Amino acid sequence: MNLFRSKLQKAIMLLVSLVTIGVIGYMGLSGYSFVDALYMTVITISTVGFSEIQPLNDGEKMFTIFLITTSIVIFGYTVSAFTEYIVSGQLFKQLKLKKVQKTIENLHDHTIICGFGRNGKQAMLKLKSYNEQFVIIEKEEKVIDTIEGKEFLCIQGDATTDEILMRAGIKKAKNLITALPSDADNLFVVLSASQLNNECTIISRASLESSYNKLKIAGAENVIMPDKLGGDHMASLVVTPDVIDFVDRLTIAGETTTNLKEIDIDDLPEKYVHKTILDLDLRKKTGCTVIGYKTPEKEYVINPEASTLLLAGSSLIVLGRPEQINKLREFF
Length: 332
Hints:
Largest sheet: 6 strands, parallel
Structural class: alpha/beta
Order of helices and strands: HHHHEHEHEHEHEHEHHEHHEEEH
Number of helices: 14
Helix content: 40-55%
Strand content: 5-15%
Distance between the termini: 51 Å
């Protein structure tokens, strides 16, 4: 891609240089004004056959021959570069990239996924199942080709740079997931993202225990260690297999198979704010059960009391069968 682009740029630069040489040459040899010199240069290199402004002397004729000969070579190179650019599909790819960038610029409250490895793919699948808007940043061109084939919004580039994050719409993003293989790269992404948008929720992957605190200090709200989680999960299947199996069945797979739902109190009708969980009466109205309460200070209360007040900025964690969760959505 860069090769074709550079050849086309080189051809354009050669054409501009040829016109500049022609204008300067005619102004110096014949004493033409800038407009007359430009006119002579254009009709010469384009070989359209218009008459000269005045008869040419031997020096001017030799210069004109030089321009014609050089222009034939440069035009041939330009046509070759442009044809190669078209045939390779790069022109259409550039048009597609501009269309994608335009779509990204119109996004807001979306999620940025940095890195499309195993963790990045899993994050994408989960967001897709919820019909969430997301943009993928990936450095490898081969991986980008597979993403584009699935019609996802993606940007090729280094996620550790501010420029790429800006192109992905970090200023208007609601969340950022950085799942790069290197902890150092994830740290750079967290630092850049937190500076560009301090309201963005940042979730980072980490491989080493020593990276955990650094990522938290840098601005990551959550730091996930896949290897540690995997080991804990396998050990839990030995110690408490039935409990883990039950919890796994609660894992949210999509809008139609949801068992758990988070309800922001701020999204409820105003009449429920500063009322109690009992006043909400979810069990009777929808069949769902409140199993958790998140305070405005982001503290979690497991199995909260019915007398718990629903304060602004808090949220409820609700458990129910898919049909009950759907009823909950319809009700609120």
